[in-house]
Specification:
- By secondary structure, the chain is of the alpha+beta class.
- The chain has 2 domains: 161 residues, no CATH class; 116 residues, 3-Layer(aba) Sandwich (Rossmann fold).
- It contains 12 helices and 12 strands.
- It has a 4-stranded antiparallel beta sheet with strand order 1-2-3-4. A 3-stranded antiparallel beta sheet has the order 5-6-9, covered by helices on one side. The protein has a 3-stranded parallel beta sheet with strand order 11-10-12, sandwiched between helices.
- Helix 8 packs parallel to helix 12.
- The longest helix is centred in the C-terminal third of the chain and has 22 residues.
- The protein is elongated, with a radius of gyration of 25 Å.
C-alpha cells in the first residue's frame, strides 16, 4: 500500500498540465520512496475530457462516491503496480527543503468557473537539492508543476498534496518554533571581507549569501536577519547584546538611529545562527556566547 501520509484521493483529482492536451498525476512510489509524475492513461484522459466538474471534483461527495470514481480507482490501480509506471519526472522527499503553491489571478477572464474568478496560473513549486554523486555535493534541481485549475475549485487538494510532500520531507515542523508556533527565524552573521577581494568578490561571503544562502532560506520558508560585521569583535559584541526593555528603546532611540533587528534583537529570539566567514568570526561568536553564559550564571547565583 502507499504511504499513509500520501493523500491518494486528493492526488487522484489533481492534473498536472504538460501540454495543452497532455496531463500527468503525482504518485508516491512506496518501493523507492520517490514521488513520480506519471502520464494519465488514455481512459483517464478521455474520462476527464467528457466528465463534468461536479461529478468528479465536487468536495461535497461522500467517501463512498469518491471510492466509486473511475479516476480514483484507476489511480489506486496504478499505485499498486508502480513498477510499470511511465515516469515523466521524479524527485525524492529527502532532497526537498521546501514546497509551496503559487497562484496568479486573472480577474478579467470571462471564463469563470462555478462563479469563481479564473486563475491565470497555479503552480506547485518543489525546491530540491539532490546529491550529485560525481561531484559529491548537492545541487539545485527544482520542480515547477502547472496545475490544471479546472480540477481544483479551491485548491484544497493541492494544498493537501503539498503538505504531504513537506511531511514526507521532514519539513512539517521545520518552519515553526516549537514553543509558540511562530515562524522560525535565523540570524546570519557574515564577514563581507571573507574570501578576499572585498564585499563585491564573487568568492566572498556576501556573494555566497546573496546567491545561495538567502534563496535557500526563502525556499525553506525560514525568516532571517542578516548582520554584516564592520569591525573586529563585532560578532562577539552582537552575541553579548541583551534583550532591551521598552524603556531602553525609548531612552536610546536617538543613539540607535536606524538600527535593524539584526543589530538589536536578543539572540535568544533566534532559532539558529549562521556564521559566514573564516575561523575568526566563528571564534568571536563562541566567545560572545561564552561570556554571555558566564555573566548570566553569575547573576543567577
Amino acid at each position: 500500500a502507499n504511504n499513509p501520509t500520501w493523500p491518494a484521493t486528493a492526488a487522484s483529482r489533481i492534473r498536472i498540465k504538460i501540454t495543452n492536451d497532455s496531463y500527468c498525476r503525482l504518485f508516491y512510489n512506496h518501493s523507492t520512496g520517490s514521488i513520480n509524475l506519471v502520464p494519465l492513461t488514455a481512459d483517464d484522459a478521455s474520462a476527464i475530457t467528457t466528465a463534468s466538474h461536479a461529478e468528479i471534483y465536487d468536495h461535497s461527495q461522500t467517501s463512498a462516491t469518491v471510492e466509486q470514481d473511475p479516476l480514483y480507482q484507476s489511480y489506486l490501480s496504478q499505485s499498486k503496480d508502480d513498477s510499470n509506471q511511465i515516469i515523466v519526472d521524479s524527485f525524492h522527499p529527502d532532497d526537498v527543503i521546501g514546497a509551496n503553491l503559487s497562484l496568479e489571478y486573472n480577474l478579467h477572464n470571462p471564463n469563470t468557473f462555478h462563479g469563481m474568478q479564473s486563475y491565470a496560473s497555479a503552480q506547485i513549486n518543489i525546491y530540491c537539492y539532490p546529491k550529485n554523486n560525481r561531484k559529491k555535493q548537492r545541487e539545485p534541481n527544482h520542480k515547477s508543476y502547472i496545475v490544471d485549475s479546472k480540477c481544483c475549485e479551491d485548491f484544497s487538494d493541492v494544498r493537501a498534496l503539498i503538505q504531504s510532500i513537506r511531511t514526507l520531507s521532514g519539513l512539517q515542523n521545520n518552519n515553526t518554533n516549537n514553543n509558540n508556533a511562530l515562524p522560525q527565524r535565523f540570524l546570519v552573521i557574515l564577514n563581507p571581507y571573507s574570501g578576499g577581494n572585498g564585499p563585491k568578490s564573487k568568492s566572498g561571503a556576501t556573494f555566497v549569501y546573496e546567491t545561495m544562502v538567502k534563496p535557500m532560506l526563502e525556499q525553506a520558508g525560514v525568516e532571517h536577519d542578516k548582520l554584516a560585521t564592520n569591525h573586529g569583535g563585532h560578532a562577539k559584541e552582537r552575541m553579548e547584546l541583551r534583550k532591551s526593555t521598552s524603556d531602553d528603546n525609548d531612552n536610546n532611540g536617538e543613539e540607535r538611529g536606524d538600527c535593524t533587528d539584526s543589530e538589536l534583537k536578543d539572540i535568544s529570539e533566534y532559532d539558529a545562527i549562521i556564521a559566514m566567514g573564516g575561523d575568526g568570526i566563528l571564534f568571536e561568536i563562541f566567545q560572545g556566547i561564552h561570556a554571555r553564559s558566564t555573566d548570566e550564571a553569575q547573576i543567577l547565583s
